[in-house]
C-alpha cells in the first residue's frame, strides 16, 4: 500500500525555490557592480575590467575542459586572435569597436571548430600538447615579416580606447573611457554568463557531461560526438576570443609578446582553482589569477613565483575541488546539519 506524505506549511516555506533568492542576489549584485566604478579609483576600475575579461576567458575554457573533458593548453592563441581581430579591424579598417567583438567571436569560433576535428583523434595528454604547440607558435606567427603590415610585427598596434556614447555622472564622477570600458565589459560578461548558464544546465550541458564521462554510452544514445566536440571547441574559442577583443580595447595596445604560451597555463590554473564544471568558478578563478600574483610579489619581490606556487599548492590541498566546489560542499553540509 503506497504512503502519502504530507508537507507542513512551515516546511513548504523553508523549501521555497532558491531561484527567487538567487534572482534577488543577482539583481543586487548587478546594481553594486554598475555603481562600483564611480566610487573607486580609476586603477581599480581598470583592474575590474581585466577581472571580467579573465572571467569570460576562463568560462570559455571551463566549457571545454570542465564540462566536455577536452584538455587544452592553447587558449592563449584564441585570446591573441581575438585581440588582433579587434586591433586590425579598428586600426586598419576603421570598424566600430562594438562590431569587432562579434567579429572576433566568429573568427575564433571558426578556428576552434576546425581545431576540434583533429582533436577528435587525440587523447587528453596528446591534445594538450597539440594545443600548447599552437599557443607557442601564435606569437611567432604574429611577428612574421610578411604579416607585419597587418599585425605591426614586434611593435604591435596602438589603439584608442572607446569613448562613451553618452555623457552622465554619478555623485559628480563622470563616465570616462575606463568606466565606459568597464560597463561595456560587464554587459558582455553578463550576457555570456547567462547564455552559458542556460545552455549548460539543460540538454546541451548533459550531453557534454555524458561525452566527458562515458563517450561510448553517449554515442550509443545518439549523440554525434564529432559535431558536439568540435562545436564545443568552437564555442570555447569564441568566448576566449571575445575576452581577447575586450582586453585589446581596455589596454589600448596589442603585441605578440603580450600573449605567451604561459598565458594558457595561467588560464588552466584559474579554471582548476575556481572549480571545474562550475560557472561561478570562472569568476572565482579570475580573482585568483589576477590578485594572487600581485600579492605574492608584495610578499617577496625576489621570488614571487615561488610564493605563488606555494599558495597554489596550499589552495589545492585545502580545496581539491576548487573554490566553487569547497563553497558548494560547505553549503551542502550546512543544509544536511539543519535537516538533522
Q: How would you describe the overall organization of this protein?
A:
- This protein is mainly α.
- The chain has 15 helices and four strands.
- It is globular.
- The N terminus is likely disordered.
Please write out the topology:
Blueprint lengths: L8 H6 L3 H18 L6 H26 L7 H19 L3 H23 L4 H19 L5 H4 L5 E2 L10 E2 L2 E2 L2 H24 L2 H11 L1 H6 L4 H27 L1 E2 L7 H13 L4 H21 L4 H15 L3 H18 L1
Antiparallel strand pairs: 1-4, 2-3
Radius of gyration: 22 Å
Q: Structural class, from helix and strand content?
A: mainly alpha
Please give the share of residues in helix. over 70%
> Strand arrangement, largest sheet?
1-4
Shape: globular
Strand content: under 5%
Number of helices: 15
Instruction: Determine the N-to-C terminus distance.
Output: 28 Å
β-strand number = 4
Order of helices and strands: HHHHHHHEEEHHHHEHHHH
User: Main β-sheet: number of strands, strand sense, barrel status?
Assistant: 2 strands, antiparallel
Provide the residue-averaged pLDDT.
89
Catalogue the unreliable spans. Answer: 1-15
Concise overview:
By secondary structure, the protein is mainly α.
What are the key terms here?
two-stranded antiparallel ribbon, mainly alpha, 15 helices, 340 residues, 74% helix, disordered N terminus
Amino acid at each position: 500500500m503506497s504512503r502519502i506524505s504530507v508537507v507542513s506549511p512551515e516546511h513548504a516555506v523553508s523549501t521555497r525555490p532558491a531561484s527567487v533568492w538567487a534572482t534577488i542576489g543577482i539583481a543586487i549584485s548587478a546594481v553594486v557592480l554598475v555603481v562600483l566604478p564611480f566610487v573607486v579609483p580609476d586603477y581599480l576600475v581598470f583592474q575590474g575590467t581585466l577581472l571580467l575579461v579573465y572571467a569570460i576567458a576562463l568560462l570559455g575554457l571551463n566549457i571545454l575542459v570542465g564540462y566536455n573533458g577536452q584538455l587544452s593548453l592553447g587558449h592563449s592563441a584564441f585570446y591573441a586572435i581575438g585581440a588582433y581581430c579587434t586591433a586590425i579591424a579598428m586600426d586598419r579598417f576603421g570598424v566600430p569597436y562594438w562590431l569587432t567583438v562579434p567579429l572576433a567571436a566568429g573568427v575564433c569560433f571558426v578556428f576552434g571548430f576546425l581545431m576540434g576535428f583533429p582533436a577528435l583523434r587525440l587523447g587528453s595528454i596528446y591534445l594538450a600538447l597539440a594545443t600548447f604547440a599552437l599557443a607557442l607558435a601564435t606569437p611567432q606567427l604574429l611577428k612574421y615579416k610578411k604579416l607585419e603590415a597587418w599585425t605591426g610585427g614586434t611593435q604591435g598596434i596602438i589603439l584608442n580606447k572607446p569613448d562613451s556614447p553618452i555623457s552622465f555622472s554619478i555623485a559628480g564622477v563622470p563616465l570616462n573611457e575606463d568606466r565606459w570600458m568597464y560597463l561595456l565589459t560587464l554587459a558582455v560578461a553578463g550576457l555570456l554568463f547567462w547564455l552559458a548558464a542556460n545552455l549548460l544546465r539543460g540538454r546541451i550541458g548533459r550531453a557534454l557531461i555524458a561525452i566527458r564521462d562515458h563517450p561510448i554510452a553517449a554515442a550509443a544514445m545518439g549523440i554525434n560526438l564529432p559535431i558536439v566536440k568540435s562545436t564545443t571547441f568552437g564555442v570555447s574559442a569564441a568566448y576566449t576570443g571575445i575576452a581577447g577583443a575586450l582586453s585589446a580595447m581596455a589596454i589600448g595596445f596589442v603585441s605578440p609578446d603580450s600573449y605567451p604560451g604561459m598565458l594558457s597555463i595561467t588560464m588552466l590554473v584559474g579554471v582548476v582553482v575556481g572549480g571545474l564544471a562550475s560557472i561561478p568558478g570562472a569568476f572565482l578563478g579570475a580573482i585568483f589569477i589576477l590578485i594572487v600574483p600581485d600579492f605574492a610579489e608584495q610578499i617577496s619581490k625576489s621570488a614571487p613565483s615561488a610564493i605563488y606556487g606555494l599558495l597554489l599548492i596550499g589552495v589545492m590541498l585545502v580545496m581539491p575541488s576548487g573554490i566553487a566546489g569547497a563553497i558548494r560542499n560547505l553549503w551542502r553540509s550546512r543544509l544536511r546539519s539543519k535537516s538533522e
